[in-house]
Design goal:
Blueprint (H helix, E strand, L loop, with lengths): L2 H19 L4 H8 L3 H22 L9 H6 L5 H12 L2 H26 L6 H14 L7 H27 L4 H32 L1
Helix pairs in contact: 1-5, 1-6, 3-8, 3-9, 5-6, 5-9, 6-9, 7-8, 8-9
Length: 209
């Protein structure tokens, strides 16, 4: 299957998700408006650490480099990288720009959905660890290798820590439990968004170079 054909299939799946998750509403704006420079810098550091760990794990070869995308198409990557790189490799700058824009618009709402499932209400370290272990394998559906899923789980630990930190800070300031949960959810979602946008930038650079 050609890169372009594979990219079209990947983009079709992304657009199905975008139909629900790319809407720009008050919550989307609230999430994005909290993306400060220091947070972005912190997320870059976290993303570099996670990518470094993934790269080290991939050096061990099988089975850590296995993923359904690799097994089916005999190439590394996943659905997102296939959609972005199809345009970049063929010189279609418009394609790449559209894919990246759609993905970027989806990130805040998708990140919040994942945070509600995996972080909300989990303050103890045992709950944080359990949710992180579950968080990584979920992303195998995107075609990423097992090594990348392990890296995602480590990223989940960071997000769990950030949720816990934000929750405890809110409680210390006198917030009620429910309000503290919402504040913590918003903060961990912003952290999640920052990390995902860093990852998207890495995929984009890989596609156009």
């Amino acid at each position: 299957m050609s890169d372009l054909a594979l990219g079209v299939l990947a983009l079709a799946g992304i657009c199905m998700l975008a139909w629900k998750h790319a809407a720009i509403g008050p919550r989307w704006i609230a999430i994005v408006s909290g993306m400060r420079f220091l947070r972005v810098c912190r997320c870059v550091v976290v993303m570099i650490a996670v990518v470094g760990i993934i790269g080290s794990l991939l050096q061990f070869g099988e089975p850590l480099n296995w993923g359904w995308f690799h097994l089916l198409f005999d190439r590394p990557g996943g659905v997102v990288s296939a959609a972005v790189s199809a345009g970049g490799k063929s010189g279609e700058g418009v394609w790449t720009a559209v894919v990246v824009l759609v993905l970027a618009l989806m990130v805040p709402n998708l990140a919040e959905t994942e945070e509600r499932v995996f972080r909300q209400g989990r303050v103890s370290w045992s709950d944080i660890a359990y949710s992180a272990v579950m968080f990584g394998p979920l992303h195998l559906i995107m075609g990423i290798p097992i090594a990348a899923a392990i890296g995602v789980s480590l990223g989940g630990l960071w997000l769990g820590y950030w949720y816990r930190r934000s929750y405890l800070n809110a409680i210390a300031r006198g917030a009620l439990h429910q309000d503290a949960e919402e504040m913590a959810l918003l903060e961990s979602t912003r952290e999640h968004v920052g990390i995902n946008l860093c990852l998207l930038a890495i995929v984009l650079l890989a596609a156009i170079t």
